[in-house]
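Dear U.,

For the methods section draft, I wanted the exact inputs and outputs in one place so we can describe them consistently. I've listed the two proteins in the order they'll appear in the manuscript figures. Please don't edit the token lines directly; just add comments below if something needs changing.

First protein:
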Amino acid sequence: MAISLKKSLLIASLIVFPLSVLFFFLSRFQEAEPPEMILIPKGPFIMGSNTVDEKGLQGELGNKKPFYLDEHPERRLSIPAFFIDRFEVANRDYARFIAGSKRNPPPYWGDSAYPKGLGLLPVVEVNWYDARDYCQSLGKRLPTEAEWEKSARGPTGNLYAWGNTFDGTKGNVSAGSHGGIMMIGRFATDRSHYGLFDMTGNVMEWTESWYRPYPGGDYESEDFGEQYKVARGDAFGESGHYAMEIFSRLTYRQNVYPEERLAFLGFRCAMDA
């Protein structure tokens, strides 16, 4: 018996409706944030600064690198959407990587296990290659310098996670006199516009990027090129930094040899959206 046009349309609608619902939920699933990661939307943000060292701090402190110049010029960039970890990678997270990869743990661990009670502290004394391999083991990667800065400064280009006025009580920063490394997320005030914790302080963080000049910059350095990686963010008071708020500025660029293992340098991971 031939099926009427009306019945054919009804059957087709019953098939199409469930498929449309399925596609809707699949699309929502694809947009969902991976566990403990935050989606940073595509679009423009402010990177770098035009600040100059009017007080002559470099000469006063004997700093090798001039302050601010490698941040020039301030510019507006637009990058694709990406995911980035909400927190710095903790000892307990890194322990799973060590167990699975059979590689050497950070020097301060001893016996292939982190010290008791330090599971929620950021892992440190990992070089750039360790950090890269950890992220890759999870299908992630290190954030680029631009991604890190957008995540930290937000859409309005804050100098600190909480705004544009320095306050040493709002994060575990070198000028804050809080002591050593603290548990990830300890400072609710050191939380960026997008919801990332410890971007201003606690430990410095590796990025994917080589230490290179910004396009249009007015500073030349023999350190530029593929010899140093960029680390971002300030660290706790015993980090070896001078106790100055300049190191807490989210635009500050620290150049570090990728083989270095520092007691105040950790990382977080990112991934493509």
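Second protein (the one for the lower panel):
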Amino acid sequence: MVEREQLRVSDTDRQTAVDALRRAHDDGRLDLDEYDRRMASAYGAVTFADLDRLFLDLPRPRTPGYDGAFASPTYPPPYPAYPQPYGYGAMPSPPAYGHYPQPDGPIGQVRSTGLQVLLFIVTFGIWSLVYFFQTHEEMRRHTGEGLGGVLALLINIFAGIASPYLLSHEVGQLYERRGWPRPVSALTGLWFFPGMLILVGPLVWFIQTNSALNDYWRSVGAR
């Protein structure tokens, strides 16, 4: 019998590991750079040994049905799991594939969250025009649906307060098309407004939304 560490992982195993890393980042266990590095390694993992190395100093994803070596009350499954002797715990994809045509367009670009924040600051927000155009255009080319870059740019110029809600919604839709839980949605835009009243709200919105978009692009092959 092949040792567990030598078995190849599935896409659901990789995604569950990434979900656990995101919770570790949200809990303050990982800084943004370390989270990005481990997330990229998770999406590039081939065997369970590759995933295990990412959790040597973290609570591991809980795995119902396994012998307990990787069980952790700190991280219960983010959604109902079925017994899976070797896996990281996952459930079959919901039938979103039946509702949407699967994207087959070009893959978008992974953008460093820290670099984008810096560009927003040094350009006094003008970089947002470039950012919203590029991200919406990439998502439209990838899925064949959505606002697209030109319309997103016009909305950002004339009704900029709507842009955060629309971007988070479209990023969430990327996940829904794949049958995955949405890490962000239009409601995430509430961090931007009225979240800006607590000053850090827009930063929280951007980190969550850009990280979710980067996670998606990596999951479909971006590096």
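Candidate sentences for the figure legend, describing the second protein: Residues 113-219 form one domain. Helices lie at 11-26, 32-43, 48-52, 113-122, 127-143, 149-158, 163-177, 201-219.

Thanks,
Y.
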